[in-house]
Write a structure and sequence with these properties.
Order of helices and strands: HHH
Largest sheet: none
Shape: elongated
Strand content: under 5%
Number of domains: 1
Distance between the termini: 10 Å
Radius of gyration: 20 Å
Length: 90
């Protein structure tokens, strides 16, 4: 097993994590920023005002993008399984 091959697998796994976690995190960031601006302008300091919309929209994004996310994880897993002979040197 070559070190470069292992590094390539790790790089692909980390990139997949970043790609899959990007949409929910960016959604939460944008919604949080919009609500913070709204709270600053209206001087409403309610904690649930930030939490509830964020959690609802993150779940909505996960529901909409869930099939695509699962297919990406399945493709990555299939590539890893097909590389097992190369890993063990058969």
């Amino acid at each position: 097993m070559e070190l470069t091959f292992v590094m390539q697998i790790c790089r692909e796994a980390l990139l997949l994590i970043l790609v899959l976690s990007g949409p929910p995190i960016l959604t939460s960031l944008v919604v949080g920023l919009a609500i913070s601006i709204f709270q600053a302008t209206t001087q409403i300091q309610e904690q649930t005002l930030t939490f509830v919309p964020k959690i609802v929209l993150v779940f909505a994004i996960l529901g909409l993008m869930g099939p695509w996310m699962i297919s990406q994880v399945i493709l990555f897993t299939q590539r890893i399984y097909s590389a097992i002979p190369k890993i063990i040197g058969v």
